[in-house]
Design goal:
With about 675 residues, this protein is of the alpha+beta class. It is built from 23 helices and 18 strands. The strands form four sheets. Strands 11-7-6-8-9-10-1-16 form an eight-stranded mixed beta sheet, sandwiched between helices. Strands 12-18-17-15-13-14 form a six-stranded mixed beta sheet, sandwiched between helices. Strand 4 and strand 5 form a beta hairpin. The longest helix has 23 residues.
Length: about 675
């Protein structure tokens, strides 16, 4: 939905040039069919080194991607005040309006101009990129629960349900994607407004268009390329704890995988010195060796230290590195981490706990992502969030899942003992008294934190996306409305709400916030709880208003026209200069940024069953949700200050109420 809106603000300055180039490219494309057919060939996951061999170079559109716009200051101020309306009292809103108008007409003007000037001087990136990285890497709170989410893969083929088998085929597919990425033959992310335009012919035409004009050529065909810069950190990347601000380190020459099992660490090469990817049989053989290790669980699991606050972990890591620098380097530089878990949770709630944090001994949370496979063969991705956003992980999971579904490899069919690239190397940490004490303290903190967290799943089957769309309403708007209704019913007020929206249609775009708690949702929530309900006609009109407002907010966010990132960048700029401004000290700004409902949607997706994350504040809810054609679903997380079970019950009741209103 966010990409659909991208055509709105585009200034097609090169219309005539692109039109002429388009005609020439169409003629050239005819003569390129032989080359293209060869490039598109895929010999299957057992034989090919690449998961894709795209006709269009992976970074073909990066030079011509539109830059993330900086909204007008007056628009940002107006949107901020509008978003505050359902959250604060009339008196507080009046006081805040005076502060905002003073900022808009005074100090804000100078700050905004400085931001614009800085953006013009850094055309290689976006105005939010540096500040956003600094926010994540400068954060001192633990990334456990506060940042890292998980997403669960769809079930595998019946032939791949064994833990080691599934890990081997997933790992092989992941390596094929990595090699495609490194060779820049991975398909660029492109959203096709008209799906029928996604043809080999169009791709050939776009591949022949100079990269400086390629985005405009795609735009002419109602195709919208997305920023691909985050993929450079997907593999071989680790977040290193440092005092004050962490560091992202990427070792593009890495050839090995790190495996965690029972708190023990193993590494083995999966890329040969000449660049060949290990076969599934080789990977299976090495994983089998690890799985057969009968050593008891690590008495002092070092991985638990990654769950500490960043300053504590930075100190502990420096002490650990005195005798273990080589071991840390092997973990940090690994292509990614594989976690072989010994549990097989039987309920969604216990599975969510396992995949988000486990017992702390089998998660190195600093890796860009970890592939988790449990005893039952369920697989998931847990990822660190500073380097990139969910859109990159979603693509990775889709590609790996699709590749797996084509794989016919099984040990009894194809496996024979082979000479692997390297032996499995079991790593050993040498721990002193200080290291052990740091681990013990981290274990205590970890257990206290995770014991407070609860998960509450909901699968709602009365209707889904198709029914909502048949009533000319936006499915995402209805899901968000149900959360607002449920919260208002339970607590009697509208909460500050965050819904993530990608700005990946722009160069180095990250995310913008959709403030889905609006005056329209508040009005409907009040109608839901009042004794004398409005008529069905009135309720339907209110639903149309809710949907229209939500679409507007989503469109603005996707186009870089929200207010959150703009105000964040201005505040970041002011702080760097040692300035303080009343707008950022105001009670309303604090309330707006104290997120009670943190929400994120998974699009209908063949590769993923569900995902979840913890609340971002102690008195908040975390809501991961998805809208399917025939049903709706969510996983709510909560701490003891909120009743997650009652909230889910009210979401269900809210969805029933909406259904009755739409009959």
């Amino acid at each position: 939905m966010s990409v659909l809106a991208v055509s709105g603000p585009c200034r097609w300055k090169n219309h005539r040039v692109v039109s002429s180039l388009w005609s020439v490219a169409r003629q050239l494309a005819v003569s390129s069919r032989t080359r293209s057919a060869t490039s598109d060939r895929d010999d299957g996951p057992e034989h090919s080194e690449y998961i894709q061999q795209s006709v269009i170079p992976m970074f073909h559109f990066e030079k011509s991607l539109p830059r993330l716009p900086i909204p007008k200051l007056e628009d940002t101020c107006a949107r901020y005040l509008t978003a505050l309306k359902p959250l604060v009292s009339v008196e507080q809103l009046t006081a805040t309006r005076d502060i905002v108008e003073s900022f808009r007409d005074g100090a804000g003007k100078a700050l905004h101009q400085q931001l614009v000037d800085k953006d013009k001087a850094n055309r290689h990136t976006s105005y939010i990129s540096e500040a956003w990285y600094n926010m994540y890497l400068g954060g001192r709170i633990p990334i456990l629960l506060n940042h890292n989410p998980f997403m669960l893969f769809s079930d595998p083929q019946p032939i791949h349900t064994n833990q080691v088998v599934r890990t081997a085929v997933l790992l092989r597919s992941a390596l094929r994607m990595m090699k495609s990425l490194q060779a820049e033959v991975l398909e660029p992310d492109i959203f096709y407004l008209k799906p029928e335009n996604e043809t080999p012919f169009l791709k050939r035409v776009l591949s022949l268009t100079p990269s400086s004009l390629s985005w405009y050529a795609a735009y002419a065909a109602s195709a919208f390329p997305l920023d691909m810069s985050q993929y450079g950190r997907l593999f071989c990347t680790t977040r290193i704890p440092r005092p004050v601000k962490d560091e992202l380190v990427t070792d593009s020459k890495a050839r090995h995988i790190a495996v965690l099992r029972n708190g023990h660490y193993y590494v083995f090469d999966v890329i040969s010195t000449d660049g060949r990817i290990a076969s599934t049989s080789e990977i299976y053989q090495q994983l089998s060796e690890i799985a057969s290790d009968t050593s008891p669980a690590a008495e002092h699991p070092v991985a638990i230290l990654t769950s500490e606050d960043r300053d504590t972990w930075a100190v502990a890591r420096d002490e650990l590195a005195v005798f273990n620098a080589d071991v840390l380097k092997l973990i940090d530089s690994s292509i990614f981490l594989v976690c072989l878990d010994n549990d097989d949770p039987s309920t969604p709630e216990s599975l969510a706990h396992s995949l988000l944090h486990g017992d702390g001994s089998n998660r190195w949370l600093d890796k860009s992502f970890s592939l988790i496979v449990n005893k039952g063969g369920k697989a998931a991705i847990n990822f660190e969030h500073s380097w990139g956003d969910g859109i990159c992980i979603l693509r990775f999971m889709n590609e790996v899942h699709d590749d797996n579904m084509k794989s016919t490899w099984t040990p009894d069919k194809d496996y024979e003992r082979v000479k692997t690239m390297s032996p499995v190397n079991k790593l050993k940490f040498n721990l002193d008294v200080n290291n052990i004490r740091a681990i013990e303290i981290a274990q205590e903190k970890f257990q206290k934190a995770v014991d407070l967290l609860t998960f509450h799943p909901l699968v709602y089957r009365t209707y889904g996306r198709d029914f909502i769309k048949s009533r000319n309403l936006a499915p995402d708007a209805i899901m968000q409305l149900s959360f607002q209704m449920a919260f208002y019913d339970q607590y009697g007020f509208s909460p500050s709400t965050y819904e993530s929206c990608s700005t990946g249609a722009f160069k180095h775009g990250r995310t913008e916030t959709v403030r889905s708690a609006s005056s329209e949702t508040a009005e409907f929530a009040k109608a839901f709880v009042q004794e004398n309900k409005p008529s069905r006609d009135d309720l339907q009109k209110l639903l149309q208003s809710v949907s229209a407002k939500h679409n507007k907010l989503t469109r603005e966010a996707a186009l870089g026209q929200g207010f959150d990132r703009h105000l964040f960048a201005l505040r970041h700029l002011a702080a760097a200069k040692g300035e303080s401004h009343a707008i950022f000290e105001d009670k309303s700004y604090g309330l707006m940024n104290h997120i009670i409902l943190s929400t994120s949607t998974l699009p209908q997706n063949r590769a993923i069953q569900f995902g979840a994350f913890a609340p971002v504040t102690p008195n908040g809810f975390g809501v991961g949700y998805r809208v399917n054609p025939d049903h709706l679903g969510c996983v709510v997380s909560a701490y003891p200050t909120r009743d997650g079970s009652a909230f889910v019950t009210r979401i269900e009741r809210s969805l029933d109420f909406i259904h009755d209103a739409l009959k």
